[in-house]
User: Fold this.
Amino acid sequence: MPIDSEEQSGLYRTIYFLIKQPILLWKKKILLYGIYCALVTFIFLLLFPLVTVMALVGRINRRELRQRLGLYGLESIQVGEGKKNIWIHAASVGEIQAAKALLDELSSRISGVRYIVSTMTHQGRLAAQRQLPNDVCCILAPLDIPFLVRRALNTIKPDLYICLETELWPAMLTETSQQGVTMALLNGRISEKSFRRYMVAKKLMSRLLAGFSGIATIHPDDKKRFGDLGARREIIQVTGNIKFDLHVSELKKDITAHRKLLNLADEQVFICGSTRTGEEEILAGVYQHLSRQWDGKLIWLVAPRHMKRIDEVREVLLKNNLPFDSFSELQAGAPRQCSVVLIDRMGVLASLYGVGDFNFCGGSLVKKGGHNIMEIIQWGKPAYFGPYMDDFRDAVDMVTPTGAGFKVQDQEELTQVILNHMQDDSRYKQACSAAQRVASNSREAAVRQADIVSELLAA
Assistant:
């Protein structure tokens, strides 16, 4: 397929800027930023011919490539006439949940606004299209190269740019600030490890953070770290984690469909969500022990965090002599024949947790930082997780003291804790009641962060 005139013009402009950009960068009086931009531009220069060829032969999606280059045509984005434009950047699938909670709250109080949500990953964009309202424009973010970012900004013309969590891309923040666009950082968090790394480039970080007019952090520790990095302390608020503000009422309609799809009767359901390499082998042993104790009336749903690991997980199940059905096959109409179901579809885990009786949160038995246990708690179900929950320590601090969450060290302890709940219904119901109380108390972050957005728009 030949390149159309708009694409050809875009290619010529790209080559021109690739030659001119490094010279312009060194005229800036910011050494680290100049080095960063020159480096990413040079890498892009090396890879651009190969990427162009791959796009021409169909190996790369041309529409997605155009968006990476900041070329948003009418087929991908339509900026609202007479409306204020809010650009929300969410890294990937996980941040889409935060974006959804924020958008739900904003749409209920602000009118005359056009929302554009960008992601860094293809899977994130698909998740955004599935989960966000139809009038939200979902795009891929431009590569973090100054002239590509400027091109995107000139097309979208945002009145407010919001980045979720810690998406601190230097070129994006610098160019957005230089164009006079108001910026907010919401649901901000910085781990101790990341903080030490950022401190090495404190001058650059201070310059980037200075562009924000409002910052909302998850935890008081995050507030302190952002301040120590150079953000203005007077604009930083601790609001809690917007990902905890999940609207499960919208997902309840999926529960009946999931139960029918899984052909559930009187079986108990054990779900292991967002599992990472090394965990499935451990969890297979947990399932086998629990199943023997429960006379085989236990269904195991295992959902790896990344779809690229599906074949790897299949091998683990076969190695452990565990026949399984694939969720995609059940969705296609095949009847469930096995007691193990491999979740090979993105975007269904949050609602599947509502079907589960015993829900384990992956990435926590191995050193991956854990995942969002509040996806489980919001259903009024206890959450089980391993010792490595560094990325969600605030959630752990919320659930463990109340008896809604159970931290285990290894396979044996996880097996015993779940077995205790299986055999003692009153103890299990107490854990469910605790989860319901935690869930009802956590639905405030979206309101607080939407207040910040409303104030910035008004100003």
